[in-house]
Amino acid sequence: ARQSYAEDVEVRASYTQTSIKMIDALPADEAKRVVAAVRDETWRAVRSAGPLAFIDMRLHLEVDGALHDVMGRERYEEACAQLALDLMQRPLFAPVVRGRLLRGHPERLLERMPVAWKLIFRDVGRAEVTPTDDGLSLALRELPILVRHDEAFLHGVVGTLRGVGEACATRIDVETEETKRGLGTIVFRLRF
Fold it and tell me: What is the pTM for the complete model shown?
């Protein structure tokens, strides 16, 4: 597998722009701390990018890292779950999520994670989904060095997975297996 270097690793601008919406829900003093922790040039680059454009992943990690540091792990994961839930309430997804097709069946959404991953990220590894007896296993493989040890990135994925469960009216318990994290693989065991 080819090793991605920082300048090769990108994310859709809309994904980072959605993260910025978390700031609006913060108390004023915390919002100021997040804004102050991110460089002005990062804010300009993220806000000026078209939503479908790809931007340098370092910009995304800078914004999400500041949010994670100020909010803490638990609140950050909850905010990511809420963002995923909000996304699924948008006109494109709402008819599917509201219907009976997904209620109680998060695997129907989660099985599409590899395709979604490719649409959101460029050179940020690959996602593999495997059914298990009590849920699914989501493996993120070939993660570049830039993201494999980033706590905000990891906790953002956990929160997003829980948000998918909420959208499907199902509680998802997420267990993270990090034994191969240094080699670029993180496995999430999802039970529902």
Answer: 0.89
Measured distance CA(98)–CA(129) in Å, rounded: 24
Residue whose structure tokens are 């922790």? 37
User: pLDDT tens digits, residue range 41-51?
Assistant: 999 999 999 98
For the chain, the distance separating the N- and C-terminal CA atoms, rounded to the nearest angstrom, is 32
- Lowest-confidence region among 47-51, 91-95, 121-125, 188-192: 91-95
For 67, residues 6+ apart whose C-beta sits below 8 A from its C-beta are: 19, 22, 23, 34, 76, 79, 152
Q: Take residue 114 and report the two structure tokens written for it.
A: 């590899």
pLDDT tens for 167-187 read 888 999 999 999 999 999 999
Q: Which amino acid is at 140?
A: L
d(CA 118, CA 3): 17
**H runs (alpha helix) in the chain:** 13-24, 28-37, 40-48, 57-71, 73-87, 94-98, 107-110, 113-120, 145-148, 151-167
CB-based contact 9:124 (threshold 8 Å): yes
Query: Mean pLDDT throughout 38-65?
Result: 97
Buried b (16+ CB within 10 A) or exposed e, 111-141: eebeeebeeebebbbebebeeeeebbebbbe
- Kindly give the interhelix angle for 57-71 and 151-167, rounded to the nearest 10 degrees: 80
Residue 99 structure tokens? 């219907």
